[in-house]
Amino acid sequence: MSFVDRRRHPDRNLALELVRVTEAAALATAPLVGRGDKEAADQAAVDGMRHMLHSVKMDGVVVIGEGEKDEAPMLYNGERIGDGSPPQVDIAVDPLEGTTLAAHGMPSALSVIALSERGAMFDPGPCVYMEKMAGSPEIVDLLDLDRPLGETMRLIARRKGCNVSDVMVVVLDRPRHEEGIRAIRAAGARVRLIAHGDVSAALLAVTERSPVDMLWGIGGTPEGVISAAAIKCLGGQMLCRLWPRNDQEREAALEAGYDLQRVLNCEDLVKGDDVFFSATGVTDGDVLQGVRYPSAGGASTESLVMRSRSMTVRRISARHDRAKLAIFRDADLLSDS
Question: Which of 266, 174, 192, 190 has its CA nearest to residue 225?
Fold first, then answer.
């Protein structure tokens, strides 16, 4: 591999370094779980994640972040992250997926990050939402955003050799999904409604032996890109289509050259075969256990760490010393963890 290639392509398993980043965000957030202040919880996650990111040996650019620089002073779109050394990479972050979940002590809040080689991640431009459908390798060829949902339910049941009543679809509980939910239920299938957290839901939809067969609905484009990175590591597929919220957003997307009819898949959202993903539980959920304090002197975390090139999936349980956790309140010492 040439020097230029070494600069552009990761040659080590960065996921094993990124887990420290999501652990830092989760541990920084944990004391605010259930306190009712989602802004404070999100800021704590951002602070913990951002400072730890600067210790990672990479030249990173935040492609999917907390928003534009004026709105998000940390981890904003376009921010340079890492120590500046090779490789050159794109980064997508959601320091606290499920801010409301964490604030109210509800299940399935996560800290997540995805990384790929420079130029690989899809930029959704002005579109904040996209329609999504995701499923495991067993049903990837049955996913279709244009087919009636009821028909897809029947095809999934036939493929899995079960009754339609055994099929479960996870859907964000939003008014915009009422018609689709009726169609799923009319076919005889079941719906698991979630309040927030469609990265966690996408992971659940593609995981083996999961109680969920498919994800469907309209959710955030940043979460879509992050979910695509995870699915590339786990297997399965996700189909997406940009969903402008209003005429102004539609016109802005068309002027920027986006094809609003195009169906995107995981390869469109995150190109290449070397994608890294890490998620750490903040609150207990179906996918990961949240931060816990088993004793007065420590805390525990559980993380999911993956790399697409090797298709390696690691579940990492870690113990953290309570005295050491003070580093999350002291930025000068954070990199020593």
Answer: 266
- Cis check for the bond before 87: say yes or no (omega within 30 of 0): yes
Is the backbone of residue 33 left (phi > 0), alpha (psi -120 to 50) or beta?
A: beta
Residues paired with residue 99 on neighbouring β-strands, in sequence order: none
Q: Name which of 228, 231, 229 is nearest 210 in CA terms.
A: 231
pTM for this prediction: 0.90
CA-to-CA distance for 68 and 79, rounded, in angstroms? 9
Residue 21: the pLDDT is 95
Of 329 and 253, the one with more pLDDT: 253
Tokens of residue 326, six digits: 């003070």
CA 108 to CA 97: how far, in whole Å?
9
Contact (Cβ atoms closer than 8 angstroms) between residue 46 and residue 97:
no
Angle separating helix axes 198-206 and 221-234, nearest 10 degrees: 20
- Give 68's contacts (C-beta < 8 A, 6+ positions apart): 76, 77
Residue spans of alpha helices (H) in the chain: 3-8, 15-29, 38-53, 99-103, 149-160, 178-186, 198-206, 221-234, 247-255, 266-269
Please check whether residue 136 is in contact with residue 205, taking contact to mean a CB–CB distance below 8 angstroms: yes
Q: What is the predicted pLDDT for the residue at 8?
A: 53
Under a CB-based contact definition with an 8 Å cutoff, are residues 231 and 112 in contact? no
